[in-house]
Design a protein that fits this description.
Layout lengths: L3 E4 L2 E4 L2 E2 H8 L3 E5 H12 L7 E6 L6 H9 L3 E4 L2 H9 L7 E3 L6 H10 L3 E4 L2 H14 L3 E8 L21 E2 L3 H10 L3 E7 L10 H19 L6 E3 L16 H12 L5 E4 L3 H4 L3 E12 L4 E5 L8 H5 L5 E3 L9 E7 L8 E9 L6 E4 L20 E6 L2 E6 L4 H5 L6 H4 L3
Helix pairs in contact: 5-6, 8-9
The structure holds pyridoxal-5'-phosphate.
Pyridoxal-5'-phosphate binds next to helix 10.
Length: 423
């Protein structure tokens, strides 16, 4: 459920006509609905209300400060994967006691920043990372609370690029080695093993793989407690899918109930790291049709947004529904086209072979479900300034990131003086 809908054939975000926002801020443009963000957070949290829990939004999905602050106001924390994300989270006012730090390649200065901020927990992904973290914590006179990210070898049944919990993936520590490495962690200085963590993949549309993974963690938890390791947190990662097209992911309520059922007797604080399910359908990307081109074999609709703005179709062959911002009075005839951007790559498309109402140049299209891994994965490829982002709240709307300028494109670049002089 989201708050993007038609009133009199015109697309609104909450109480605001999308067209009105575009007139002020231009295209391409990301528009988020704060009502939807809050609603998704509350629905996700609801089943856990009776149990100790923490929702750590996986901020790589959508890391704008305003959006982080909305979740933080609701009591949420964040899951970070870099020093840059730590910086953003702290800027947004997320309390460090609600920050967990995941990722296979943490650098020592990133660890130092997180240690100095006294974040809740590091999700450690290898034995070598454990050694370095111990050294850094010791050097700073701190103690690092850690979980090991274990790889339960569960098939999440999703796109190979976003499955992370298989033996063949780079993530985590093999489940068979977990006990041995926990014992090592316990004996290393300045480390405090307090949690178990896993994250098996993204855009999961079945409950089975989650249940399988949690059952495996359950067994590990018993073993660890038998060995005197006091586990307080069970971090089950993110990954719950959303409907982009025809898929029917489990409702957050069913997901929550099933998880709770498995962990309610475990005496732990549950940590979840949802990303997509909170923000995916709370954001859209608006783009303007530039040209239409009918080839011998295909029709092309050329729009002003491209793979640099939304890479999911190019990267994962992901499906995004594309609709008109103003529906015509009599339904325009449908036709089948590739919807493509201006970038010089054949892989630059937002949709392929898509049947849509024939749009004409100048019209606005809304690319739906673009709130997760949309703006955060955008780049400046082809020297295209990144989009503006706007947040709608009821009948008001706010610019939460200004469109980049050409000056932004060259910020930090320098031409060495001898080259400048033509040598
Ligand atoms: C990306 C990621 C998530 C969030 O995944 P979603 O599918 O967006 O819910 C959670 N935890 C970790 C460690 C991740 O890398």
């Amino acid at each position: 459920m989201h708050y993007f809908s038609y009133k009199d054939r015109e697309l609104f975000c909450e109480q605001v006509p999308v067209n009105q926002i575009v007139e002020e801020f231009g295209t391409p443009l990301f528009v988020y609905s704060s009502g939807t963000l809050k609603r998704h957070y509350r629905i996700f949290e609801e089943p856990f209300s009776g149990a100790p829990h923490m929702i750590c939004f996986s901020m790589k999905a959508c890391s704008n400060l305003a959006i982080l602050k909305i979740f933080s106001n609701l009591g949420g924390g964040v899951d970070i994967v870099s020093g840059g994300e730590l910086f953003r989270a702290l800027k947004a006012g997320v309390p460090p006691s609600r920050i967990v730090y995941s990722g296979v390649g943490k650098k020592s200065y990133e660890m130092d920043d997180a240690l100095r901020s006294d974040i809740l927990m590091f999700n450690v992904e290898s034995e070598e990372e454990l050694q370095l973290l111990s050294q850094r914590a010791l050097a700073l006179g701190k103690s690092a609370r850690i979980a090991l990210r274990v790889n339960p070898d569960v098939d999440p049944l999703t796109h190979p690029y976003i499955s992370t919990g298989l033996k063949s993936n780079k993530f985590g520590i093999q489940i068979e080695q977990a006990l041995e490495i926990y014992l090592k962690a316990r004996d290393l200085p300045a480390l405090e093993p307090v949690g178990i963590d896993c994250h098996i993949g993204s855009q999961l549309t079945e409950l089975g793989p989650f249940m399988e993974a949690v059952s495996i963690l359950r067994k590990l938890l018993k073993k660890l407690r038998n060995n005197g390791i006091d586990i307080k947190y069970l971090d089950i990662g993110g990954g719950l899918g959303i409907p982009y097209d025809q898929e029917t992911p489990p409702a957050p309520g069913d997901y929550g109930a099933a998880i709770l059922d498995l962990v309610s007797d475990m005496d732990i604080t549950l940590i979840m790291e949802p990303g997509r399910v909170l923000v995916g359908n709370a954001g859209v990307m608006i783009t303007r049709v530039l040209y239409k081109k009918s080839g011998l074999e295909k029709n092309f609709v050329i729009v002003d947004a491209a793979m640099n703005d939304l890479i999911r179709p190019s990267l994962y062959k992901a499906y995004h529904s594309i609709i008109k911002v103003k529906k015509s009075l009599d339904q325009a005839p449908k036709f089948v086209a590739d919807i493509v951007g201006p970038i010089c790559e054949s892989g630059d498309f937002l949709a392929r072979g898509r049947e849509i109402e024939e749009p004409f140049p100048g019209e606005l299209l809304a690319v739906m479900s673009a709130g997760a891994y949309g703006f955060t994965m955008s780049s400046n490829y082809n020297s295209r300034p990144r989009c503006a982002e706007v947040l709608v709240d009821g009948s008001n709307y706010y610019l939460i990131r200004q469109r980049e300028t050409y000056e932004d494109l060259i910020r930090g670049e320098k031409v060495p003086s001898h080259i400048l002089e033509g040598k």
